[in-house]
């Protein structure tokens, strides 16, 4: 009788349990003089060692990173700088003027925590190259990779995306 009760309890618990959600939210915030990217673990579990790559090469407006006074950028430039969550970053990436991607190695990212960096982002195809609006990022991607899986998502009409990750236990 106890084994039947235990079996029923496990079956009922399984029906009402939902998977633990894991995802990373990536936001681009246009600013002057510095633009900002915020990478947030918006899931309900901590994430282990991973890389997060932001790839602008497929953006609608040919968006680039403008980090020096000379080169492909327009007027103002800003170098790459971690401004939040630096304790989660394993190594600071080198970003060159005109680069279209940046990869951050994270030693982990607890649920609800963020890593943010500032940099100048310029549009190479529009009339106001110094200002990048939401839809100009359309097509750019963010990818999250660990030793066992990779997940990515593209920006749409807004400068925010969510990369859905495999569920966590």
Tell me what the structure shows:
The chain has one helix spanning 2-16; strands spanning 23-29, 35-41, 50-55, 64-65, 81-84, 89-91, 101-106, 114-119, 121-122, 141-145, 150-154, 160-164. Strands 5-8-2-1-12 form a 5-stranded antiparallel β-sheet, with no helix packed on it. Helix content is 9%, strand content 34%. The radius of gyration is 20 Å and the shape is globular. With 169 residues, the protein is mainly β. The protein is built from 1 helix and 12 strands.
Topology of helices and strands:
Elements lengths: L1 H15 L6 E7 L5 E7 L8 E6 L8 E2 L15 E4 L4 E3 L9 E6 L7 E6 L1 E2 L18 E5 L4 E5 L5 E5 L5
Antiparallel strand pairs: 1-2, 1-12, 2-8, 3-7, 3-10, 4-9, 5-8, 6-7, 10-11
Strand percent estimate: 25-35%
Main sheet: which strands, in order across? 5-8-2-1-12
Helix content: under 10%
Q: Residue-averaged pLDDT, rounded?
A: 84
Structural descriptors:
1 helix, 169 residues, mainly beta
Summary, kept brief:
The strands form 3 sheets. The protein has a 5-stranded antiparallel sheet, with no helix packed on it. Strands 6-7-3-10-11 form a 5-stranded antiparallel sheet, with no helix packed on it. A two-stranded antiparallel sheet has the order 4-9. Helices cover about 10% and strands about 35% of the residues. A hairpin with a 4-residue loop joins β10 and β11.
